[in-house]
């Protein structure tokens, strides 16, 4: 998969078209669609706490080649999971089940579209091919949902804006796939803009595109390659812990989310949170929100070094207070901080494996990958992968 991240969009389009023909015949009046992966620069686990996030879409992403059918059948094939073969289902069978594997993501979106007054009457044949490292915290799931949504709008004539697409896809992931994620992933994937990060207030869904001009530096993703089976359930646990903290705090101060609290208010009222674990979770949510707002302000002032320092603080907070990192992510981040040309580094995404994001000076990239890679292999026993990524735009019809 690491070599796939360097394949151009044109080449991906050609490969998926060939893949479609092989499994389902000529694409005919069908199309190829694209939705990007995303990386969050700062603001982790704040999106379901009414706080701010600062993610950007990537040029790597998920492609879908789709042709409508005249009956109600649905057929799916993923070129990333060829051994799973073709999944056959129908529009009358939109019920999540492990036997439908990854197709629960696109099927969930079809179901939610129907629930919201966008009925899909005829089925389709869909081939998926992506170059987002799978399950690595770069939101291949949101890309798969959003590419499905954009396809449905185009093929079935629905007019739905990007924000609404994000909300429908989040609902699909929450209710159909049992992952209680916030809005960040789907919003970034649906609303990305080239060379910009999105400063998003997840309580109001108000947002601002902030240009990312790194000049002589690049964004480097390091993948732990850890297989993280328990991630979704632990993620849902964190969400519950924050809800508990919010319920306790609501007895002493009127707030509707942890994102409503300033750090000073948190310090004043934190005693109301009975469970010390929940108190630490809430502390992260409140301070991370402040860090994100500060980081964006500093970046706009051109203070990249100060932005990098906040990335490090953000990592320490998810490691110590929120406890979603683990030895793999901590090893990558700590090794990165020791490389002089590394401006900032932290884990990105839900955690428990997945990736770190680092901002590294271009002339230090080989040293960075060498030193961090060696430290990781020595401590963890297997290899980390590195990708230099570019900030891309939102979904496309190719
Ligand atoms: P991520 O951090 O990448 O979003 P998730 O665990 O949320 O990780 O989503 C990964 C899941 O999404 C995969 O296990 C698979 O079910 C589905 N998925 C993502 N990309 C593809 C793809 N190209 N083909 C088929 N399924 C995919
Ligand atoms: Mg996901």
TrEMBL record:
The entry's active site is: 185 (proton acceptor)
Q: Which GO terms describe its molecular function?
A: ATP binding; galactokinase activity; magnesium ion binding
Quote the EC number.
2.7.1.6
According to UniProt, where does the site described as Transition state stabilizer lie?
Answer: 38
Q: Where is the GHMP kinase C-terminal domain?
A: 296-367
Binding positions (substrate) = 44-47, 235
| PROSITE patterns in alphabetical order | GALACTOKINASE, GHMP_KINASES_ATP
Name the residues that bind Mg(2+).
141, 173
Subcellular location, record wording: Cytoplasm
Q: Which InterPro entries match?
A: Galactokinase (IPR000705), Galactokinase_bac (IPR022963), Galactokinase_CS (IPR019741), GalKase_N (IPR019539), GHMP_kinase_C_dom (IPR013750), GHMP_kinase_C_sf (IPR036554), GHMP_kinase_N_dom (IPR006204), GHMP_knse_ATP-bd_CS (IPR006203)
Catalysed reactions, as listed in the record: alpha-D-galactose + ATP = alpha-D-galactose 1-phosphate + ADP + H(+)
Sorted UniProt keywords: ATP-binding, Carbohydrate metabolism, Cytoplasm, Galactose metabolism, Kinase, Magnesium, Metal-binding, Nucleotide-binding, Transferase
Which family is this protein grouped under? Belongs to the GHMP kinase family. GalK subfamily.
Name this polypeptide is given: Galactokinase
Please report the organism this UniProt entry assigns to the protein. Answer: Eubacterium cellulosolvens (strain ATCC 43171 / JCM 9499 / 6)
Lineage, broadest ranks: Bacteria, Bacillati, Bacillota, Clostridia, Eubacteriales
**Which gene name belongs to this protein?**
galK
């Amino acid at each position: 998969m690491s070599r796939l991240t360097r394949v151009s969009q044109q080449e991906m389009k050609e490969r998926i078209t060939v893949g479609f023909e092989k499994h389902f015949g000529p694409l005919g009046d069908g199309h190829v669609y694209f939705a990007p992966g995303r990386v969050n620069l700062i603001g982790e686990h704040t999106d379901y706490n009414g706080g701010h996030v600062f993610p950007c879409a990537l040029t790597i992403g998920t492609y879908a080649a789709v042709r409508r059918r005249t009956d109600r059948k649905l057929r799916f094939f993923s070129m990333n999971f060829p051994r799973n073969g073709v999944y056959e289902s129908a529009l009358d069978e939109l019920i999540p089940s492990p036997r439908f594997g990854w197709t629960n993501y696109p099927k969930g979106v079809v179901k939610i579209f129907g629930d919201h007054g966008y009925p899909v009457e005829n089925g389709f044949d869909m081939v998926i091919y992506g170059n987002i490292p799978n399950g690595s915290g770069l939101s291949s799931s949101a890309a798969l949902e959003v590419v499905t949504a954009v396809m449905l709008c185009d093929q079935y004539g629905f007019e739905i804006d990007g924000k609404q697409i994000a909300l429908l896809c989040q609902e699909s992931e929450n209710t159909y796939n049992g992952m209680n994620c916030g809005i960040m992933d789907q919003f970034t994937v649906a609303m990305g803009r080239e060379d910009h990060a999105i400063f998003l207030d997840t309580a109001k869904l108000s947002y601002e595109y902030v240009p990312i001009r790194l000049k002589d530096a690049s964004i480097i993703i390091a993948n732990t390659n850890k297989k993280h089976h328990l991630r979704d359930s632990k993620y849902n646990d964190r969400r519950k812990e924050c809800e508990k903290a919010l319920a306790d705090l609501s007895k002493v101060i009127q707030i509707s989310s942890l994102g409503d609290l300033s750090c000073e208010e948190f310090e004043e009222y934190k005693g109301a949170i009975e469970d010390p674990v929940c108190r630490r979770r809430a502390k992260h949510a409140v301070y991370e929100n402040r860090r994100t707002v500060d980081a964006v302000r500093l970046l706009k002032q051109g203070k990249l070094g100060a932005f990098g320092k906040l990335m490090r603080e953000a990592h320490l907070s998810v490691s110590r207070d929120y406890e979603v990192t683990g030895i793999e992510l901590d090893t990558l981040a700590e090794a990165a901080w020791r490389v002089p040309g590394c401006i900032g580094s932290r884990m990105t995404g839900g955690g428990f494996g997945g990736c770190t994001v680092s901002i590294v000076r271009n002339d230090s990239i080989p040293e960075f990958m060498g030193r961090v890679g060696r430290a990781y292999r020595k401590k963890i026993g297997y290899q980390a992968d590195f990708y230099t990524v570019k900030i891309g735009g939102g979904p496309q019809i190719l």
